[in-house]
Design brief:
alpha/beta, Vcp-like ATPase, Chain A, domain 2, 7-stranded mixed beta sheet, Rossmann fold, 277 residues, 8 helices
């Protein structure tokens, strides 16, 4: 991120016409972007500040913003798999306590949407180690990480995480896999004490198996599962109401904190009991 707020050649810009019509484009000298409401000439943008507005040849005014990582994930990134929505990505980042300098293991990479969100928070000194067993996803993920400007903070591994986690003393292990319960013990071994295991699953059956595994031998404490809903509100004078359509269920997010071995021996007195499924 540059210190100045000036639109320069090769910058990505977010053009917003209204709530439904918004595009991310790369500003190039002499180039233009065509919409059904007229043409936006990039020469009218270059040298201006982000946050300005520009008129199309159809005399329609568009706001010009600097795109966020969430904008990139929803509007620009290529998708080889279903992405984790920004609403869930934000919950994962916050609940895992991820920040500058954090060391994070993730599996699987998929399209790299969540990877880019996490990498954006660990930089400049942190690192994300992302495991992806399917080689065909790697090119798309790398391109998306470059698009988000965070590739220097990420190491992508074409490896099956069920075969082991090379990193140790990490701050968080984030799983977006079909069988996350198979990784719970490996995650415990990789995490530092109090480090957070995060598991994202679309079905409750997957979630139950993961929580059950995390509860065994009191490997983890403070096990919590959430589902996040975001409902957009249409604010108009005299007729404000929720939007008719919304993204409903996306996934269940489970978070658990690693208990050290010496603590696990006295868990009944120091920690609340866990429900055994």
């Amino acid at each position: 991120m540059r210190e100045d707020n000036i639109i320069r050649e090769e910058d990505y810009v977010l053009l917003v016409l209204d709530d439904k019509r918004r595009w991310i484009v790369k500003a190039k000298a002499g180039g233009s972007f065509h919409t059904h409401k007229g043409i936006v000439k990039f020469d009218d943008l270059l040298g201006q500040e982000f946050g300005t507005s520009v008129k199309s040849t159809g005399d329609r005014e568009l706001a010009v913003f600097r795109p966020t990582i969430a904008d990139m994930a929803l509007l620009k990134m290529m998708r080889s798999t279903q992405i984790i929505y920004p609403k869930d990505s934000a919950m994962i980042v916050i609940q895992c306590g991820i920040g500058p300098g954090s060391k994070v293991v993730e599996a699987g990479t998929g399209s790299g949407s969540l990877t880019s969100m996490v990498a954006n928070y660990v930089r400049p000194t942190g690192r994300v180690y992302s495991y992806e067993a399917r080689k065909e996803f790697l090119d798309t993920a790398r391109k998306n990480l470059e698009l988000a400007g965070v590739s220097e903070c990420v190491e992508i591994k074409n490896a099956d995480i069920t075969q082991g986690i090379a990193e140790k003393d990490v701050d968080a292990v984030i799983l977006d896999l079909a069988t996350p319960w198979l990784i719970v013990q490996l995650a415990w071994e990789a995490l530092k004490g109090s480090g957070v295991l995060s598991s994202y699953s679309p079905t409750i059956e997957q979630t139950q198996k993961t929580v059950k595994e995390a509860s065994k031998d009191d490997l983890f404490g403070d096990i919590q599962t959430y589902e996040c809903f975001v409902r957009k509100i249409l604010v108009r004078e005299g007729k404000t109401r929720p939007e008719t359509f919304m993204v409903g269920h996306t996934g269940y997010m489970t978070f658990a904190r690693k208990l050290n071995k010496n603590s696990r021996q006295t868990n009944q007195t120091n920690f609340p009991a866990f429900a055994k499924l």
